[in-house]
Design brief:
This protein is an alpha/beta fold. The protein folds into 2 domains: 29 residues; 272 residues, sialyltransferase cstii, chain A (Alpha-Beta Complex). It is built from 10 helices and 7 strands. The protein has a 7-stranded parallel beta sheet with strand order 5-4-3-2-1-6-7, with helices on one face. Its EC number is 2.4.3.2, 2.4.3.4.
């Protein structure tokens, strides 16, 4: 009898540890497969990145700042960056809200890129079926509902790609320079009057209580670990996809890659340049990684054609 009791207690302890591990560790840790490409490489890619978002208490290292400032030739110093971050969190929540993982709740996400391969895809209902729908930059739904859906819970942007949002959608800022931190603070309050390499909206409509700001160190993690430093820096789309793998349990990916003619176009635009590629982003390498992730069932990829 005593041995049976000991076995029962042991099993309860094992189950309890399993539940604790899933609840407290896996929010940023998707599954990985030792047979996927190089087992150690994919294990490194899926290592838990503790803070994908900036918070009022997070201190970016000067080394990561120096990497980040080279993305767009930022000339201002680390002290200026820290002052802008402090000011930003006087307006926005001190930390980004991320839905916690639990055994009872599978967080499903649709990451919706802007590729022309979404045209005539009829993916709209599949996209809207997911709990969270993450769109980015100029991605729009009006007039394209059948192919891209209508639902948006998170919208990724930076100043030069900003769009107005409704009161329930989370603005997810991907900052590439100090100006971006200044912009999001002023565009939601007094108005922004600076300039950049492209026109910037002085004011935007969004709920300031739902703002989330990507950690520059996370950008470096994606570039160094996921892309093995290929290209100048990752595309917004690829960083969004890796972010989704950190904050979702099940990821569905739409609108990534070239169209059927090999052009990297947007679904809402009439293509004028028939040899449009991906600029400084390693598009081919990013696409290969997405295909590998889909092959090993670490995400579901909808090619569109």
């Amino acid at each position: 009898m005593k041995s049976k009791v000991r076995i029962l207690i042991f099993l309860l302890v094992v189950i309890g540890i399993g539940l604790f591990w899933r609840r407290d560790v896996t929010p940023y840790l998707p599954p990985w497969d030792e047979t996927f490409e190089n087992g150690m490489l994919i294990k490194q890619r899926f290592s838990r990145f503790a803070e994908p978002f900036l918070s009022a208490n997070y201190n970016l290292s000067e080394d990561n700042f120096n990497w980040w400032k080279r993305l767009q030739a930022e000339k201002r110093n680390f002290t200026t960056y820290r002052n802008k971050v402090d000011r930003m969190f006087q307006m926005f929540p001190a930390s980004a809200y991320v839905e916690a993982s639990s055994p009872e709740h599978c967080r499903t996400c649709a990451v919706v890129g802007n590729s022309g391969n979404l045209r005539k895809s009829h993916y709209g209902p599949r996209i809207d079926f997911q709990e969270f729908v993450i769109r980015m930059n100029g991605g729009r739904t009006k007039g394209y509902e059948a192919d891209v859906g209508t639902k948006t819970t998170h919208h990724v942007m930076y100043p030069e790609s900003a769009v107005d949002l409704d009161n329930t959608t989370r603005l997810v800022l991907f900052p590439f320079k100090i100006l971006d931190l200044d912009w999001v603070t002023k565009a939601l309050s007094t108005g922004f009057s600076g300039s950049s390499y492209a026109p910037i909206k002085s004011n935007i409509k969004a709920n300031k209580d739902l703002v989330m700001v990507l950690n520059p160190a996370f950008m470096r993690y994606v570039h160094d670990v996921w892309l093995q430093k290929k290209g100048k820096y990752p595309s917004t789309g690829f960083m969004t996809l890796v972010l989704a793998l950190h904050i979702c349990d099940e990821v569905h990916v739409f609108g990534f890659g070239a169209d059927s003619d090999g052009n990297w176009s947007h679904y809402w635009e009439k293509l004028m340049n028939n040899n449009l590629k991906t600029g400084s982003h390693p598009g081919a390498e990013e696409y290969k990684i997405i295909l590998d992730l889909a092959k090993h069932q670490l995400l579901k990829f909808y090619t569109g054609w």
